[in-house]
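User: I'll paste a sequence; please echo it back and then give the predicted structure.

Assistant: Echoing your sequence first, then the prediction.
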Amino acid sequence: MHNRETGTGPVAVPSLDEENEAEFDWDRELRVSERARRALELMRTAMEKYGNVGQPLWPVVPSSLYGAFLAGEERDACILVITFDASVHGWAAVLRTSPEEHGVVIVGGYRTAVDLLGAAFISPAALPDCPAAQVYREALAGFLATQAASKLYPLADHTVLIRSDCLGAIAALRKGSFRSPALQNIALLHNRLFMDVGADPPLYLHAPGVVVKAEAPEGVDDLSRSAARARRASESTAALRRIVTCEAGRLGEPISLHLFASADNTLVPRFFALYPEPLAEGADALAQPDWGRSCCPHCGQHHRECAFAFPPRGQLAAFVAKARSDGLRGVIVVPFVPSDPAWPTLAAASRTSVAGQRDPCVIVPNSPEYASEGDDLGGAQRLAVMAVDFSRWSRRSFAGVAALCGRQRELRATQPLRGSRDAEDRRRIEMGLLRLGRPNNGSKRPRAGQDW
C-alpha cells in the first residue's frame, strides 16, 4: 500500500522485509466495520467449505445447461431455474424444475430486506429512474427471489440456475461489487444463503428482455409490475388500523394473524400472503387449513386466533364461507354494501355496535386516508370495520384451546429447506452435469484454430 511509512494511505501494512517483528504489534486488535466483519466471515467460511473442492477442467456452461433442461436431457441433474425481474413496485420470479411445467410464480416487495440489510437498505422507490438504480433493484430482487425459492425447494438438492435480463445484477450477485457497498451487501447475503443450506454456488445466465417478457403465461416482466402492484391493492392505512385495534378490544384479544396480507402491509408479524414470500407463514389464505386456531411452536399448545382480514372484493363470498366453517374470530374490513348477499351473515357475526346507528359496524369512507390503492373494492364508496365471531356456525370444537402463552403473535416464518440427498445421489448429479462440459469420448481432436 502506498504511503505505508506515514500511514496516510488507505491501509498501513508492515513489510516483513523492511521492518523487524518488534516494530509492529501483530496481536493488536483492529477496529473494523460491521460490513467488513461480515465480508471477512464470509471469506473464512468460503475457504473452509470450498477450499479443497476445486474447479472442473471443463466447467458447466450455463447456456448449455439451460438448453439441456429445455430439451429434457438432464432430468437426473435436478435443475432449478429461477427467472426473475424487478420494477419500482416489486419483484417477480418463476421457479421451474421441469421444462413441461409453467413453474411456480412468486411475487414480492422490497420491505422484507429491511431487517436483512439494516442501515444498508435503500428503498428502491426512493431511487431515481437511472440504470444504476435498476441494477440495485434487480440485484435485490434476485436475492429475495432466491430466498423465497429456498422455502419451496431444497437448494442443496438442486443445481440452481438464475436468469435475469440485467447483466449488472448478475455480475453483482456472482462476484459482489467493490464500487457499490449496497450491491456488495446483497451479494454477501445471497452467497451466504447457499453456504448455510449446504448448496453449491449457483450458475447465472443472461436472458434478454424479450425473453423475460415471454416467460410464463403472464410474462415475468409483467408480473414484476402489474402483479407486484396488485398485491398492495386496498392496503389499510394507519388511521384505519387504529380503528381495527380498537375493535379488537371488543373481543378481549390482540390481533395475532393477518389474512390476505404481504410483508409490505402486514399488521402483525404473522401473515398469509397471496404469493409465497420469505416471511409469510403461508401462501393463499383461502388454502390454509384453519383460521380459528393454530399450534404454537413455542409452547406446543393450540391457541385461539384473533385474525385481521381485509379480503379482496372478488373473494368476499369465499371469505365468508371459510370464516363460517373455521369459526373465525377477529376484525374484518369489507365494502359497506348492505345489499350484498353476504351482508346478513356478516351483520349476524358482528360484535360491533355504534350508538344511534342500525348497522353493526364502524363506517369510514373509501379514501386514501383509510385505504391506499383502494381500487379493489368493486366501486364501493364506504368501508365497514367490524369485530366478528363466526363460532356459532362452525362445527369445530374450541374446548381444548389453551390460554395465550404470550408468544402467539411472534413470527413463524418458514425456514429454508435442507438437502436430503446422500453422497451417491450428489455424485450422480455431478457426473450428469459434467457431461455437458466435457467433449464426447468418441469425438475427434479439434483441428488447428478450432475449439471444442
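The first helix runs from residue 34 to 50. Residues 1-14, 437-452 have pLDDT under 50 and may be disordered.
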